[in-house]
Amino acid sequence: MEHVNGSSQKEIRVWCDGCYDMVHFGHANSLRQAKALGHKLIVGIHNDADISKNKGPPVFTQEERYKMVRGIKWVDEVVEDAPYVTTLETLDKYDCDFCVHGDDITLTAEGVDTYHLVKKADRYKEVSRTAGVSTTDLVGRMLLMTRNHFKQGDQEYSVEKDEDIEAIDRLLKKIEIKTGSSKLGQDHSARSPWTGCSQFLPTTQKIIQFSDGKPPKPTDKIVYVAGAFDLFHVGHLDFLEKAKSNGDYLIVGLHTDPVVNQYKGGNYPIMNLHERVLSVLACKYVNEVVIGAPYSVTKDLMEHFNVDLVCHGQTPIATDVGNIDPYAVPKQMGKFILIDSGNTITTEDIVERIIRHRLEFEDRNTKKEKKEIEVFEAMQRVKLAEKSG
């Protein structure tokens, strides 16, 4: 390993760990910042049993979470079944210089800071938490969809029991739910400073930080895909990997919120366009994103980006306004294929998981926030005592 000036330097290996449940751009941004502090980023991921014991049931299985983190562009290695409490032995085992975490707090079921050992040994660094998103917030957005009903195909999942409605309402009062710029279920009483979610404010700088910024080479075969990519998950990841394997440079077109709502209906999209942009840009298979891409793939788009191939997965293709096939142009050009990633998970499936276990998640989020508030108040009392003493 060398500096740009030619002097030798030891490779700095950075350790991060966590649940990484429902991986979103906040997780990705934390890992991006951690990678910037060294040369190699090693990410440890906790198993389902440890998460259930300390936090409550995860939305994704451990295998799904392992795959999702491996798909983030800044991650060099993934360690499966990482211990819930980070120890010096873990850092040494994987030859890591220090551990990095966001400026929030992670607690065990007993209320112990999971990083207390590495903090004491001065092998701990913090990065800024990404404002405007959290797993708790996303779970809340999906629970909001269950307040009355949620439709999936010909099936309808209804909330009919009064106790279920009351349980959901209790959670929604604790979490700031956002759909676009709207805020629903906001509670102005005491909230955890970490679980409580402020509004996400997108900037061009954030997009630049997530983007590779590399144009395609003249010899690259350019592949184009388009969709909502809402609540980015393993189904999306496997599809993008398969699409990328058909060429060299992958461009993803993201539809606007109104367009997604038109063909998805209900409360979709769960994440707004700006959030979806960052989630997709964090994927290591993606080279470029078209923000607010047209639903129908036009000849102008094909020529502008020099697209060689347009791919679509196994999900149904809704027609555009006027009953037009959105892929008519690339089909006529002989540049369209249907691909099968082998993964049938959809965003609707993830929402259904939340609906099926909504009371468990309500209990999980409530307990988590209560512990965080207790710890935060204790920290504030210590600071106050230090000032007065």
Automatic annotation (TrEMBL):
Superkingdom to which the source organism belongs: Eukaryota
InterPro entries: CCT, Cyt_trans-like, Ect1/PCYT2, Rossmann-like_a/b/a_fold
Pfam families, sorted: CTP_transf_like
Residue intervals of the Cytidyltransferase-like domain: 15-139, 225-319
EC number: 2.7.7.14
Keyword entries, A-Z: Lipid biosynthesis, Lipid metabolism, Nucleotidyltransferase, Phospholipid biosynthesis, Phospholipid metabolism, Transferase
Enzyme class: transferase
Any one of the GO BP annotations: phosphatidylethanolamine biosynthetic process
Keyword Transport: no
Pathway: Lipid metabolism; Phospholipid metabolism; phosphatidylethanolamine biosynthesis; phosphatidylethanolamine from ethanolamine: step 2/3
Molecular function GO terms recorded: ethanolamine-phosphate cytidylyltransferase activity
One of the record's GO cellular component terms: cytoplasm
Keyword hit for Transferase: yes
Family membership noted in the UniProt record: Belongs to the cytidylyltransferase family.
Name this polypeptide is given: ethanolamine-phosphate cytidylyltransferase
